[in-house]
């Protein structure tokens, strides 16, 4: 009997909510911080139409229309009131998430693959095929951006580290570069064995995590000289990574199969496998409360996975019988 109950609970746990609406692969996901209206989830897609959803139910809130190419990256302010997107149409756009209106469009000379926004929503950073980091001031949107050069290949990730007054960029050249926000000067480099596919800060902003080839990497960002990097070598090349808020597990997606894997943070051991997508996994992201994992795939869907089965959450109802 106990074994049957455990099997039923496991089956309940791995049944996701499926969010339709996109028509091409979903390549990036991000949750906002909790707001008065709840948590929001933004998705980037090759169909060029980033979408905003309720972060608990997955219900569609709105679509940002205006890009003329694939949208590779989307980020929101902590309050969720503004979003920035980077696209293959050589632009980055800033949006009002309440009205859906486009506030600013910043032209680039090639594909924009990565964007981020400052915590106070006053500046945005972009990177992409030009291998150039740009910093735009939203108080002076017509002013030329600050620029920094250092990568030798496409910038795949830009991370805004407000607490330490710096930007971090990850590139296809296998380098993570650290930039002083006050001077836009390069201050340090982390060298990796393969191109950087994904990079982000943990929800509490204490840990920088990234994927490089088959490695999942975690750096205590308050440490000196990168001596606190923990690296787990996994079975597949990784496309995306997300650390649970309690730092006990991390989720990893791969372009080599259809499964989302949950690993032990301390050991790297595989703990669970979530099956449901019909295409390779491009992006994974834990919600701020850790109750949910959002995943995006080549199959054009966003799926929401409930993390625990012992209580109700969102549209999931716990059956006590």
TrEMBL record:
<dbReference type="InterPro" id="IPR019775">
    <property type="entry name" value="WD40_repeat_CS"/>
</dbReference>
<comment type="similarity">
    <text>Belongs to the WD repeat STRAP family.</text>
</comment>
<dbReference type="Pfam" id="PF00400">
    <property type="entry name" value="WD40"/>
</dbReference>
<dbReference type="GO" id="GO:0003723">
    <property type="term" value="F:RNA binding"/>
</dbReference>
<keyword id="KW-0507">mRNA processing</keyword>
<dbReference type="GO" id="GO:0000387">
    <property type="term" value="P:spliceosomal snRNP assembly"/>
</dbReference>
<keyword id="KW-0508">mRNA splicing</keyword>
<feature type="repeat" description="WD">
    <location>
        <begin position="64"/>
        <end position="105"/>
    </location>
</feature>
<dbReference type="GO" id="GO:0032797">
    <property type="term" value="C:SMN complex"/>
</dbReference>
<dbReference type="InterPro" id="IPR001680">
    <property type="entry name" value="WD40_rpt"/>
</dbReference>
<dbReference type="InterPro" id="IPR036322">
    <property type="entry name" value="WD40_repeat_dom_sf"/>
</dbReference>
<dbReference type="InterPro" id="IPR015943">
    <property type="entry name" value="WD40/YVTN_repeat-like_dom_sf"/>
</dbReference>
<feature type="repeat" description="WD">
    <location>
        <begin position="148"/>
        <end position="189"/>
    </location>
</feature>
<protein>
    <recommendedName>
        <fullName>Serine-threonine kinase receptor-associated protein</fullName>
    </recommendedName>
</protein>
<feature type="repeat" description="WD">
    <location>
        <begin position="274"/>
        <end position="306"/>
    </location>
</feature>
<dbReference type="InterPro" id="IPR020472">
    <property type="entry name" value="WD40_PAC1"/>
</dbReference>
<keyword id="KW-0853">WD repeat</keyword>
<keyword id="KW-0677">Repeat</keyword>
